Amino acid sequence: MSEYDILLAESGTKANLLGNYAFVRGMIESGVQVATCYPGSPTAEMANALLEIAGQAGIYFEISTNEKVALEIAATSAIVGRPSVCWMKSVGLNVAADTAVQLSYMTMPGGLVVILGDDPGHLSSQNEQDNRYYGRIAYVPFVEPSDPQEAKDFFVTAMRVSQKYQAPIFVRATTRNCHQTGPVIFGERGVSNIELKWDNETMRRDGGYIPLPGTFPPMKRKALEKLAQIGTEFNSLGFNKTVRLGTGEPRIRMITYGHTFQSTMSALDYLGVSAEILKLGITHPFPKDDVRKFLGVSKEVHVLEELDPILENETKVLCYELGLHTKIVGKAGLPDEIELMIGEYDPTRVTSILSERLEIKTNPDFCESSIPVPVRSPQLCPGCGHRTAFYATKKAMGKNKEAFSMADIGCYSLGFLPPYNLGNLLYCMGSGAPAASAVSRAFPSEPVISFVGDSTFFHAAMPGIVNAVYNKHRQVIMVMDNGITAMTGHQPNPNSGFGAGGATPKISIDEILKSFGVKFVERVPSYDCAKVEEALKKAFDYAQSPDGGVAVVIQEEPCALRRSRIERKKGLLANPLRIDLEVCKNVKNCLRGFSCPAIENTDAQKVYINTDLCIGCASCVQTCPLKDKPMKRIEDFKRV
Amino acid sequence: MKESTFGIYACGVGGFGIGSVTRILSHAAQLNGLEAFGSETHGLAQRGGVVVSTLRIGKKIYGSPLIIRGSSDVVIALEPLEALRAMPYLKRNGTIIFNTQRFQPLSVRLGMDQYPAIGSIITELVKVTEKVIAVDASQKAKELGLSESANVVLLGRLTREGALPFDMEIMKRAVKETTPPKYLDINLKALAVG
């Protein structure tokens, strides 16, 4: 029995589902045969579900090495006739963009739906980019659901329309769509009866699959024609709807979509305002007919959209085309124009936007704490091997050298926080090594280092490392090998020894590096500070030696969170440690310098180990400068 | 047109069972024939950071699963500092319950910030409501032999106080139908000792 079994239930079942699981149910109802992804918030839970139930659902599922590869597998499967889906986080589409912009030129009889997890509010990504622009570059329609029921229903319809027009469709979900729960009524499970076909005849159909100067114009023409046809089709399917709230003449008329629509409904209910809302389910191509009908003879229409003013601008263009003088209120020209482009539109925020615009004097009755509430930032887990490695790195680099460390994407991005302050420049996946290359060229005598996790290594870091070797940059790279894609919830990667389909040979990072021509590769246990420090010092020396260049230290320790969960369940987790206050001299380096979350400060300003958090790794012991260590393992302890 | 919905704001530190609080409550709502819309925190924030789940319960829910500031009928905090952080979401005369077990944030451990005393947290919270309940749920849960059941201890107490729109029978069923068999016995006891 798995918690995901409900997703396989029969038609008519009503279940409360997370948005991401609603998408998975949509895949099952669409007869999807191929599902691919690279894990990323806010879409990661789809992978977790399919890791469990893909087989029972009749879906071939893989976690690909990156989003571009995932998209190529899914798109090509659709071309040969298999209903396919690929999903990725917002910035994942940048990685897949080279492929994404080609999709609409291809004929895909199997149907391809790509689910994009955008992140307004910047909750778990390096930016909050508005991926709706990609629909305009790639000529791919955009469908945007609100609640979990719509997530499933829109997916199913999108797949059907994709198959009808043999063209790709993007479903855009935000963090709030993916991570909300709500009731979903299930439809029938689907089975595809599309023929699998790829031969000398199909390879040339509709202008073929090779975009060349001569063949490209008709391919683009086809893409643009299909885009318009699909737009018309979605409009006829009622994807856009008008909602009226309250009685009498509406006090405000608004165009909105997605979770912003939900926030708007909450806000209007709270304010008790009558309104008429056009809720868009398809945002690209812009549904001109529905918007024209809604604009009617209105004097003023508000466009409420998170992030960039895309629908606002489309609406303004339409008004111009129609010769309407309707005032469109969105973001442009407002005093808080810039602020309106930043962050999520949650119901509290929409309430304040609307009460200001309608000049309603609401006094939201809430009370803030008058005493300061310390920030609680995410941090590396208790016993995390990355922490010990960072502790050693800081020592190996020397005083005040933190600026020469470059970050990458993963749990280890948190090395940026005090007390380590390691990893101080970050663009995106795989950017650490190239950034370090540039800094090492500018400051040749400094200890320049970049960090990269095992999953990120395979995803996007390899070209940067090859470049460093090829162009003879002198730098140290630390591979943070915990054997899993940890930050998104422990999905496997090529270094894990297993994948979505079960056991698979581990692909050796060491051998890859050696084949790149990296002459210095040393693997060290993360928990051993002295060994990590020694290896790093050697690596820095090597990097700057006459024959030196790129040196790699691989610090290895399984993800502490994952390991401790498994060991806890089996009753195998080591006993926690305690501080022997008779021995402790209150140096507090374990607390301030090492800073494992299990080590706390008591009200009496003494060091204390929280036994609920301590996983017993004992790596803090080596950070105490005293000869007689006050950290003692608790002999008689029962973990509950 | 005001719909009557019941808002629950549950918060704590990543990895301490906030998700299961709203799962149990959402199930209880369904057993009562009500709809439940919720939101959860996943991803990086879970790594020892602030985790918030919200739930709106009612006959027919529309709108966002998030709760407007000052509109939560009940706030459930698995950690005292998080109770204080959640204060702006608490409805006047609503109910707030928190577990007294503290988890120091980084800035407190590094000596950059002060962790407020439990007494002053309560003093702040009573500005919004008299219904402030502080429980050492972690201790009670450990006595039962399962520290993870601290969240159920809090739910038991809230039910007994009549702060939730369900009675104990419904909560028992909700716990039964959402708890793995291995932990069921302890979770039912946790509900009772709360």
Description:
- The complex is a heterodimer of chains A (640) and B (194).
- Chain A has 640 residues and is α/β, with parallel strands linked by helices.
- Chain A folds into four domains: 5-236, 3-Layer(aba) Sandwich (Rossmann fold); 241-357, Rossmann fold (3-Layer(aba) Sandwich), CATH 3.40.50; 385-564, Thiamin diphosphate (ThDP)-binding fold, Pyr/PP domains (Rossmann fold, 3-Layer(aba) Sandwich); 574-633, Alpha-Beta Plaits (2-Layer Sandwich), CATH 3.30.70.
- Helices cover 36% and strands 17% of the residues of chain A.
- Chain A contains 20 helices and 25 strands.
- In chain A, the strands form seven sheets. Chain A has a seven-stranded mixed β-sheet with strand order 3-2-4-5-7-6-12, sandwiched between helices.
- The longest helix of chain A is centred in the middle third of the chain and has 21 residues, at 216-236.
- Chain A is globular, with a radius of gyration of 27 Å.
- In chain A, 53% of the residues are buried.
- The mean pLDDT of chain A is 96.
- Chain B has one domain (6-193): Pyruvate-ferredoxin Oxidoreductase, domain 3 (3-Layer(aba) Sandwich).
- Chain B has eight helices and six strands, in the order βαβββαβααβαααα.
- A six-stranded mixed β-sheet of chain B has the order 2-3-1-4-5-6, with helices on both faces.
- Chain B has 194 residues and is of the alpha/beta class.
- The mean pLDDT of chain B is 93.
- Classes of the chains: A alpha/beta (640), B alpha/beta (194).
- The interface between A and B is large, with 68 and 72 residues.
